[in-house]
Amino acid sequence: MRSAFALFTRATVALVCLVLLSGGASALEPAKGKVVLTVLGKVAEKNTANGAAFDMDMLEKLPQQSFTTMTPWDSKPIQFSGPLLRDVLAAAKANGTTIKAAALNDYQTLIPLDDTRKFNVILAHKMNGAAIPVKTKGPLFIVYPYDSKDELRSAVYYERSAWQLKSLTIE
Amino acid sequence: MPSRSNHQSFLLRLALATGAMALAIASLLVFEVAQMRTIRQTGGLLTDSLTALVFQFEREFLRLRQSVEVSVADPGPIDAEALSLRYDIFLSRVTLLRDSPTTRVLDQRPEYQRVVGLLGSFVAKADGVMAEAPPDRRALAALQAELFEMGPGVQALSLAADSLVARQLEHQAQTMLDQSNLIIGLTVTQLLMLLVASAALVVRQRRQEAERLAMEKLSADLQEARQLAEAANRGKSQFLANMSHELRTPFNGLMGMLDLLEATPVSPQQADYIGTAQASADHLLALLNDILDVSAMEAGKTKLKPSPVNLPRLLQDVEALVSPQALAKGLAFTFNTPLEALPWVEVDATRLKQILFNLLSNAVKFTPQGAVSMTVVERGRTDGKIELAFEIKDTGIGIDAESLANLFHRFYQADSSKTRSFGGTGLGLEISQSLARMMGGGIAVQSKLGEGSVFTLRLGLAIAKAPAVLSATPADSVPESVGSSPAAADPVPQRSQPSRVLVVEDHPVNRKLMGMLLERMGLHVSFCENGQLALDLVQKEVFDAVFMDVNMPVMDGLTATRHVRALAAPVSSVPIIVFTADVMDEATERALAAGADGFLSKPVKIDELQQAVDKHLPGHAQAAMGA
């Protein structure tokens, strides 16, 4: 009797959980593959206890952008592809003023959330059409369209261009 | 001109200074541009921080070395994934160190070349070790040893990058400093040039001001000199007029005495001497009159007094004056004029006579033999006006072309050598021409040397109505200076009592002369020396007439006349005849305005005096003596 009640209780909890999960499925599914990006802080859409976790598949499903630009880190122009940063943040329903970007090598930089609205900043996962390994600044790379505007070719924006990106914390 | 060349050199200097300034500004601009380019270039080079890049590399190098060390030392299983991530991050740093444009400035540094060389062999080895999962612990130990070996080189690279950047910054600062110094130098130069230019402008301005003042002073001096010259000229004219005037007073005495002397019993030879003296005196008087005329014209004091004139009578008067002169010289004188056709005209008779007499006298004077003629031609008659041409023709010496051009100019006579042989002031033609122009006409001349001359006076005159009753008086009533026709002295019934006249005259000779002339006319004469005495006398005694000089001490004649006129009747109505050496036209007017009944000009001539006595003392017994 007691075990039947426990079973019932468990079933109920599972059902509730299922209902809850299926209700959030329209917004953000849990990551199925290896998590490449975590969006923390002020996010309304979470698929983990702390925030929104994305695997490469989820990022590739967002609308993709592509542009070619010179960077200070290479002598040749490079084509970058990936979702717009603002789309990624929208997917996590991020709401704040500043993004703290952190990289695998513990590099940290602050990006005003306004930047994502003013410029077509992308979260590149491809360079010249190929996935980016860690040893060439991968797997994710915040890229501004430097060649589109003079003001973007400055240390301010170069500093905000975090590579080997690991997480974004919305403040 | 010195000021002009000064001006030009000043402009040149100004242009040079401006050009130099423009050059300075241009070079300043070049330096500014260069500086801007330098700043841009450094900005481009430092698009990513070299020190940060090298520092990050060193950091990842150390972290990898620590991970490898931990994996080698830890006896447990190796965390292959974590180690691989560390290695990949390290690799990304190696790539940046090798390929980033930022590290290009390090290319030639031995520290950089050494580290890059070591990294090449290490990565080649490590790639193989890391490819295995988990990596072989012994191989890792070998890598660890190699990493420790590389340590000092990596640190040296960091220091090299640091010193390079420091030197670069120093160099940039120095460059900026140099350029700033250059800019300051150029600016100071520019400032100095501006100061010099403004100083030059000030100097120029002062010099121009001084020149202007000098010019003004010169102009004022010239103006003053001109005024002085004019004043001197006026002074001379005035002196001439005064002298002529003053000469008339003693001359009056001289002529009067000659007249008196002529009337005394003299031998025929003495009479001839007296006649000659009289002719000389007449000539001298004519000269004085000419000078006075010119002075009056120059002073603008000459005024014409037109009145209705019987032209035929006037012409006859002139003929009467001239024909004796012509006959005396043995010349034929003809007067071809239809007198009855000529009307009465409005003209100043005295002045018209003066012109004609002058032209005819000249014709007689310059004609040694042959004939002189006067013809009056009517050139046209329009509504109330008549155009007349008086042609005076002679067969004399004539005038050459050159002299003809200067004929009407002052003091000019056809030949200065002739002046002596013919005499005269040389003023006659100028006076005649001036008078003719005042009358609205002019005198023209045609002549050839040796073939005689024709002088033509042309006048346009208003036709006047003849007075209803033709009087027996002369054509003009004003006393004449040129000469006058002898008056017809009609006998007047005698009176038993001689008339009493008062002569007021300060000059003793003239007083004596007037007294003798009037006594010879049968008058009883009293004398006094000035207007004040005259005023007293007329109130004590009864006079039938007063002869009053004008210029006298104490009280002048005109003032005395006015005082007499202001007295009670009958004294106030005593006839007063003013006589003066002042023959300006306005003198007559002033005398008449003061209340005078008659006017005589000095030197007083017997016949004029006789006329005045006849007119103003009609009841007086005429002396039997002829003038």
Percentage of residues assigned to helices of chain B: 55-70%
Identify the strand order in the major beta sheet of chain A: 2-1-11-5-6
Please name the CATH topology of the largest domain in chain B: Four Helix Bundle (Hemerythrin (Met), subunit A)
The oligomeric status of these chains comes to heterodimer
Structure, explained:
The complex is a heterodimer of chains A (171) and B (627). Chain A is of the alpha+beta class and 171 residues long. Helix content of chain A is 28%, strand content 29%. Chain A has five helices and eleven strands; from the N terminus they run H-E-E-H-E-E-H-E-E-H-E-E-E-E-H-E. In chain A, the strands form three sheets. In chain A, strands 2-1-11-5-6 form a five-stranded mixed β-sheet. In chain A, 36% of the residues are buried. Chain B has four domains: 2-198, Lipoprotein, type 6 (Four Helix Bundle (Hemerythrin (Met), subunit A)); 236-298; 307-472, Heat Shock Protein 90 (2-Layer Sandwich), CATH 3.30.565.10; 495-616, 3-Layer(aba) Sandwich (Rossmann fold). Chain B contains 16 helices and twelve strands. Chain B has helices at residues 2-45, 50-73, 80-99, 110-131, 137-263, 268-298, 311-328, 349-365, 401-405, 416-422, 428-438, 508-520, 531-540, 557-565, 585-594, 606-616, and strands at residues 307-310, 332-336, 344-347, 371-382, 385-394, 442-447, 453-463, 500-504, 524-528, 545-549, 576-580, 598-601. In chain B, the strands form two sheets. In chain B, strands 1, 2, 3, 4, 5, 6 and 7 form a seven-stranded mixed β-sheet that branches. In chain B, helix 2 (50-73) packs antiparallel against helix 3 and helix 13 runs parallel beside helix 14 (557-565). Chain B is rod-shaped and about 195 Å long. Chain B starts with a helix and ends in an 11-residue tail after the last helix. Chains A and B meet through loops of A and helix 2 and helix 3 of B.
